[in-house]
């Protein structure tokens, strides 16, 4: 049933299923992958925020 892991990861990431609804045989693997993806998502968002702030400050310096 390993072929079902990406399907359950997608469902959990999109809020269509809770981790508790994943079959117990796959739950740990799905939970691990979801945690990895959420950390990656947070890292990307923080990088984007830093980049936006950097552009904002660069824009302010040019107008002074």
Please provide the ordered H/E string of secondary-structure elements. Answer: HH
Give a quick account of the main beta sheet: strands, pairing sense, barrel closure.
Answer: none
Gross morphology is rod-shaped
The amount of beta strand, in percent, is under 5%
Count of individual helical segments: 2
Number of strands: 0
Provide the low-confidence segments as ranges: none
Structure, explained:
With 64 residues, the chain is mainly α. The chain has one domain (4-57). 77% of the residues lie in helices and 0% in strands. It is built from two helices and no strands. The chain has helices at residues 5-13, 24-63. The longest helix has 40 residues, at 24-63. It is rod-shaped. The model has no long low-confidence stretch (mean pLDDT 89).
Entry keywords:
single chain, 64 residues, mainly alpha, 2 helices, 77% helix, 0% strand, CD1375-like
Give me the secondary-structure topology.
Elements: H1 5-13, H2 24-63
InterPro entries: CD1375-like
Short note summarizing the structure:
The protein has helices at 5-13, 24-63. With 64 residues, the chain is mainly alpha-helical. The protein has one domain (4-57).
